[in-house]
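For the sake of clarity, the format in which proteins appear in this thesis is described at this point. Each number in the token line that follows is a code from a learned vocabulary of backbone shapes. One such record is shown here in full, so that the layout can be seen directly:
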Amino acid sequence: MKEEAKAWRSPVFTQLEVLHATYRTHTFPRHVHEDFCVGIIVDGVEAVKYRGATHTAPKGSIVVLQPGEGHSNWAAVDAGWSFHVIYPPASLVQGLLVEEADQQTALPFFAEPVICDRPLFRQLALAHAQLAQPAVENRLSLETHLLALLRTLVHRHAVHGGDRLQRRPTAHPMVQALKHYLETHYGQQFNLDDLSQRSGLSPYYLTRVFRDAVGLPPHGYLTYLRIAQAKQQLRHDTSLTQLALELGFVDQSHFTKTFKAWVGVTPGQYRRQLTR
């Protein structure tokens, strides 16, 4: 397989993020997504480390990852893997359960990230073929179809209500304060001692409780914030060098390398594909 990737925002559901990619040597480091990740494996085999276990997803699989859950991905075979993925907002997926009174405030929860459902896989593949078209001819029809597919996914494969498994432990009260601090100072440089002094926790204990609560250690969460902000800023004409410095990266090269590791494409590719 030849490595290639295309990321763009479709007009459906007000800028739904889509990624179609093939990788052999590229590895996604541990990261999180703000939204649900719903992917299909169209060739090869993917490996994903998720919730403390390593899972393999062969061709024909559906892969679903919860918002905010730390995970890493790589090729499970030498030939690599090809996948198509959408990132539906958590609020959109949550709304699929709105008619169920006891589920109004709960996010659907998928206990297993790799799902075998060939009929649903085929329907998702057809939807991705429509998303990949240069122009969406019937946005209303495609949105309706995607909602139906997501609802099917939730009702067939999500764990509901009191059956939800593996809840995270209650976070240390300092974690939320540190999250807020990083969210408002992501362009600055930090080391672990800085955060340790601010929190009053030892570096080791701080890293452990933060990762338990957030899914990433502090430096990983800081990178997540910078990448999320970069995606927003790449809609504008700011130079990549200036943007890299504003976001707290050492230089443009560091920004490009980190962005590709997390997103799968370079900042320049991402910016060009935003306007497709």
About this structure: The two ends are 25 Å apart (CA to CA). Residues 109 and 163 are 10 Å apart (CA to CA).
